[in-house]
Amino acid sequence: MKNQALQQLYIRQLQEFELARQNYEGLKQVQVREIPWEHFHLRIQYNPARMISTNAKTDRQSLESRPCFLCASHMPTAQKGLPYLDRYHLFVNPYPIFERHFTIPSDRHLPQRLEGRLKDFLALSFDFPEFTLFYNGPRCGASAPDHFHFQMAPRHHMPLEEDVENDSIRHPLLRDDYYSIFTLTDYLRPVIVLRASDALILTELFRQTQQIIGQTIPFEEEPMINLLGWFDNCQWTVCIFPRRTLRPWQFHADGAEKVLFSPGCVDMAGLIIAPREEDFYKYSTELLTDLFAQVSIAPTDWDIIQQRLKHLVPFQPLPEATEPHD
Ligand SMILES: [Zn+2]
Residue 168: helix, strand or coil by DSSP? Predict the structure, then answer.
């Protein structure tokens, strides 16, 4: 039912919302090339329409001086949404990376913070199983860090989704009948994968994982992560990329050294968006190794985190019963 309503919204928006119609039409022209590694590959997409997101200025002054594009009151009149859980709307993203790319902002202009919202993330992935949900932290690729939003894309378009099924790179950390935690070995950008069929267990595993990341990497608003997840085979899979910075030095360089690499979830998941044609051709295994190393967690911190993850306790002990008094 919900999926049907979403499909209808998409069809109607492509008829009535000219900006979206043009950009989804343009998406058919994007170029793609693949760069193979030993056990996985990265996909590069040349997509000039994404310049606006990659180059977005997210410092406080820039944010305060622009009308927020995720507030309904500033949206073009032709842009319509589908209500969800009394506090979100699903909108067709007018600057797509994928065919059927949705943005799910909070109805209220509240900052990009995950606290208290993981259950909504899990509910969305359960209700829309044909989609992969994702969340960019406020300093990890969100182009509107002042307005809370999730995004979603059709499943199986990002290499990560295949890679988590690849036994040859899966490194198990913890396993039980109801959940598992693993990482991917030599994956260029460290990732933690949580799997569980119970939303409460997963929420608790996630809370503790986020805490461990925050204890290891300094942060301001919240531990720095990119988060992706989906619901498949009666269980949730949630992938967490710990980050140390938004952009590598090459982003700020001039001339031949410049690379417009400002990764969010989609890039971390192996689909690199290149808004400039020169970058599209410039990407190589050497360059990508360097870029991902700069924005991802440092190797020594990664070792510490993996050790700590082995001791997660998915069930919080109940408070000890006190003896009744007479
Ligand atoms: Zn807003």
Answer: coil
Ligand 1 center to residue 144 CA distance, Å?
8
Task: Count up the domains in the chain and report the number.
Answer: 1
For 153, the domain range is 2-309
Tens digit of pLDDT for each residue in 84-104? 999 999 999 999 999 999 999
Report whether 76 contacts 17 (CB < 8 A).
Answer: yes
Q: Separation of 132 CA from ligand 1 center, angstroms? A: 24
* Band of residue 321 on the pLDDT scale cut at 50, 70, 90: low
Q: How far is the CA of 135 from the centre of ligand 1 (A)?
A: 16
DSSP secondary structure string for all residues of 253-286: --GGG-------HHHHTTEEEESSHHHHHH--HH
| Assigned domain for 321 exists | no
Phi-psi region of 166 (alpha: psi -120 to 50; beta: other; left: phi over 0): beta
DSSP H or E stretch at residue 173: strand 170-175
What pLDDT, on the 0 to 100 scale, is given for residue 97? 92
**143 within domain boundaries:** yes
Q: Against a cut of 0.90, is the pTM above it? A: yes
Judge contact between 213 and 223, C-beta under 8 A. Answer: yes
Domain with residue 137: its CATH number is: 3.30.428.70
Average pLDDT in the 10-24 region? Answer: 96
Is residue 294 in a domain? yes
User: Does 295 reside within a domain?
Assistant: yes
pLDDT of residue 314: 78
